[in-house]
Write a structure and sequence with these properties.
single chain, mainly alpha, Ferritin, Rubrerythrin, domain 2, three-stranded antiparallel β-sheet, 67% helix, 6% strand, globular, binds fe (ii) ion
Amino acid sequence: MHKMTEKNLKDAFSGESEAHMKYLIFSDIAEREGKPNVARLFRAVAEAEKAHAAHHLRLIGGIADTGENLKEALSGETFEVEEMYLAYDAVAKLQDEKAAQRSIDYALKAEKIHADMYKKASDKVGKGEDIEIDKIYVCTICGHTREGSALDRCPVCGAGSDKFKEF
Ligand code: FE2
Ligand code: FE2
Ligand code: FE2
């Protein structure tokens, strides 16, 4: 593929990914505002943007089998934990950005867990097996992720058990 087309598809993948995520978040807001049909529209268009993103990602060689995908996912989470969010946190502290520090802290704490989970999954899939995993709970406020049972309170942000989503 020509360099310029590849670069354009990378940019388009970023744009579509961002739109997908924004629309899902906007959908939640519309739901909360009692506008379920707008919420549904946002979810539908988000799905379309995901399809666009998937095509672009495939063409730029960003999709492989699950073994490779787990390695890629692990590497992303590890980068966030060991470099990105640590550096962002340092800057936010330096600039006394309290809300940003909290936002970064929520992410950093969850990414550590994600990296651990992906590491275990990657080892298993490397042996040609699927993982054995219990129910997974995610705090929809801070992203805290845990396997097993729901908690009364999120250990990171203090949200109640009703804020956990089960997978
Ligand atoms: Fe699109
Ligand atoms: Fe993560
Ligand atoms: Fe939380």
